[in-house]
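#random but structural
TW: two for the price of one
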Amino acid sequence: MRKPKLAVWKFASCDGCQLSLLDCEDELLAVAGAVEIAYFPEATRGVVRGPYDVSLVEGSVTTPHDAERLHTVRRQSRTLITIGACATAGGIQALRNFKDVREFTQAVYARPDFIDTLATSTPIKAHVNVDFELHGCPINKHQLLEVLAAFLNARKPNTPSHSVCVECKLRGTACVLVRGIPCLGPVTHAGCGAICPAYNRGCYGCFGPMETPNAPSLSRKLAACGMGERDLQRVYSTFNVGELPFREEAARHGS
């Protein structure tokens, strides 16, 4: 039987989520045995022409060329899965959406007229239909393996929809928010294993908003921990500021 073709595509990103696949180590051999890695420039020069059964897309859309290329990827892909905060929420580069990008290019480049870029950084779903989103900055490699296995076996991926708080409970970590340490865990999608709270630090929201987050309620608690309006705006304006719940909450505390 023909192996399903897997393609991995990069747009505006740091490559960290693609590296999560390569970091699977022993499991990567099983992946390579189950699929034909047809397109993956991060790992191999070999290219097998599409169409592709599954495409993993990392990165956000920041240039006109990428916007056009993305539609080509979608047409060649039976299933398209976005991986990471850049692909699902626009990434840290989505902070440009709140400023004039021309000011940045003029400050950084000697010849800004050579720069062909969009005014915004947008997630993949803003341009094409997406079959599944895998959140994280970077993604959890075990969740990635689960998602791949699910689509290869025509079933629904079993990824958590609860908050980081549940992960803290599962690993026996005392709540840092109760102790007065600002933490986004109550509104953040699980997946990291509650790494930061385990080391006595608050969650930074790397995996984006959980389902139905109550960000205004959390903000009142964070204010009680000593955070001012400017700090509240900044804490929601990170990797996942492009996600509506975080974007709206950041805007509520903006000037």
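TW: number two ↓
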Amino acid sequence: MSLTTGSGPLAPNPAGRFSAPVPAAVVYVEPFRRRVRGRSGGVVVLDSERVLLVHQPRRPPTYAFAAADVPAALGTPEPAAPGYVQVPWDAVEEWFEEEEQMFFHPRNPYHRVDSVRTTRRLRVELAGVVLVDTTDTVGVYETALEPRLYVARAHVRTDLLRPSAADTRTYCPYKGVASYWDAVIGDTVVADVAWSYEQPLPESTPIAGLLSFDETKTHLEADLPAPADLPWSP
């Protein structure tokens, strides 16, 4: 996320512009001042405090470790950092930064989630029925991603929603585990039309229990700011 994906500054389609050209496929490498461990079968197989964070286009950040800290069978050279090696995420069963377990990929230090109370309108309609129409919303502004509106259940036709029949779950390293909701309107059933974070991670607690809706499965109108055109070119 952030630097190299979405609309980040080093992503293929950045939201803004640099004042001078940046080389294509540039890789950004920086020190990562945390202890990182990999564990398999309850045994620590990798333990290092000599860690780099590597940001590559279109990819979330990855760790690179001092080669001496990694068993030879696990590591491959990191081209952007001589003397350091990469370890595939699935090469070990569990990853930890200090004593906090990480899932899917390292968190990005440049990624931020701001949840802001707002009066921007959200209207959601499905199968001719209005599920939401309110200006009592929370805007979620997440680095390099499009802003979204979340809404309290008191403003939603929750009588037309049920927990996902497929028990769909997704994970965000910055918000936590999302639970999904199906819409049931008469004979119309639309799977996973909305989601919520019931127990979000600390930085996202303002959206605990709130709902957001999938604009590809509903007719959704969200009063959100359009991308601004910069008045200059590099």
